[in-house]
Amino acid sequence: MSAAPQDEIHRGRCACGAVSYVLRGPLRPVVFCHCESCRRQSGHIVSATSVPLDRLSVTGAENLGDWQATPDAVRQFCKVCGSHLFWRGHDATSISVMAGSLDTPTGLTPWGHIFVAEKGDYYEISDGLPQYDGRPPRD
Question: Residues in domain CENP-V/GFA (predicted)?
């Protein structure tokens, strides 16, 4: 018998293991962000899923560094190895989790691309997923 979606457990960590985390429940499909801030910090695009804040448990939180990415958001990274782990809006009730930091298998699927108006000029997006010049419209 498979676990119910609310019973799903996903684990992840930074490259060195100084920060690890557990996510409980279903994850949002992966969003690819091409904004200048994501590109400059990560070296390319960012791929992230998301969960409500109350479904995230972090071990090694003392090793998390905060960087004020934009006036309304903070990025969190491992202070030991530099791995990018989380992105959170100041008033958000959920947190974005860098998909590449999750242990596999994740079961995640891609949703689409945001901030494509700011993407690098050295690649094309040709996967057929929805693309938005900025933030996508809210449902």
Answer: 10-112
Which residues constitute the domain of residue 107?
Answer: 5-118
The CATH number of the domain where 39 resides is what? Answer: 2.170.150.70
Q: Which residue in the block uniquely carries the two structure tokens 């949703």?
A: 111
Give the angle subtended at the CA of 84 by the CAs of 62 and 23, to the nearest 5°. 70
Q: Look at residues 22, 21, 20, 26 and name the one whose alpha carbon lies nearest to residue 8.
A: 26
How far apart (Å, rounded) are the C-alpha atoms in residues 36 and 120? 8
> With a cut of 70, which residues of the chain have pLDDT below it?
1-6, 139
pTM comes to 0.91
The mean pLDDT value of the chain amounts to 93
Strand order, beta sheet including 20-24: 9-13, 20-24, 56-59
